[in-house]
């Protein structure tokens, strides 16, 4: 909800990452992975720890970029 209402806020990258992780955990892997991968592309200037966490989650869930 926070990500949709405030996509330009400082915590938007964190919200996107959390949403992606939650979606993967409930079985929506494709959508969740696209959100996890989107953290780095949509928010390249996000806090480095958020980008690193997104990279960790990407590997943990074996997310692949769709072509």
Describe, in short, the structure shown.
The protein is mainly alpha-helical and 67 residues long.
Walkthrough of the structure:
- The chain is built from 4 helices and no strands.
- With 67 residues, the protein is an all-alpha fold.
- Helix 2 runs antiparallel to helix 3 (29-42), helix 2 runs parallel beside helix 4 (48-60) and helix 3 packs antiparallel against helix 4 (48-60).
- The longest helix has 14 residues, at 12-25.
- The chain is globular.
- The model has no long low-confidence stretch (mean pLDDT 91).
User: What count of helical segments does DSSP give?
Assistant: 4
> Any idea what the radius of gyration is?
11 Å
N- to C-terminal distance: 28 Å
Structural class designation: mainly alpha
* Helix proportion: 55-70%
Q: Helices and strands, in N-to-C order?
A: HHHH
Whole-number mean pLDDT: 91
Please give a handful of descriptors for the protein shown.
mainly alpha, 67% helix, globular
Q: How are the SSEs ordered, and which strands pair?
A:
Layout: H1 2-5, H2 12-25, H3 29-42, H4 48-60
Helix pairs in contact: 2-3, 2-4, 3-4
